[in-house]
Specification:
alpha+beta, Muramoyl-pentapeptide Carboxypeptidase, domain 2, 5 helices
Amino acid sequence: MSMGPAHALAGRNGPQLGKRSTSAARHAIDTARMRSWQKWLFQAGLRLNAALTRSRRWRWIEQRVLTPLCVHLTHWLRGRSALASTPEQLGREWERLLGDPRYAHVTRVDASTQTVYGEIVGRCPLRGSGDVAACHRLMAFDRRLMARHHAHFVVLQSQAEHGKHYCQIAIRPQLLDASDLMPAHERRSG
């Protein structure tokens, strides 16, 4: 019994193509699982750090151990990049380090003040708590990430404030004065 052209092609190229597409599908599934795992791990770490930073007794662990560890882990996972030298590069680097533009993203760049503005829309464990001081301590993570690029990182509006559903942030090169950027934890909430 002779094989038709379709069977001959399937026999010669089919399994090879099948293996490639199966391999690509497995890679896509593995990548999705890894992202899901990273997201879960990030959220778990965020909840733990938020709880610790609100406790006088355990705050030092969050500040001296977990935050530096998370910064090093982030640089290891995301890789180190060249130092950002423009506001646009600072914004792209912040987005890259946080890893998900659906969680945190740049909203605009003010060229006149060389300031990048962004939002963190992912749900924070401190949302609505009124504890903006804990938010400031928790955001030491972002400040340390941007300090490597010689930049100020300021939380202008915090999810910890009542009625706020996202954080508004500003990033500016450290060589420039940032006294006009009023941190959320230093102003009175209305």
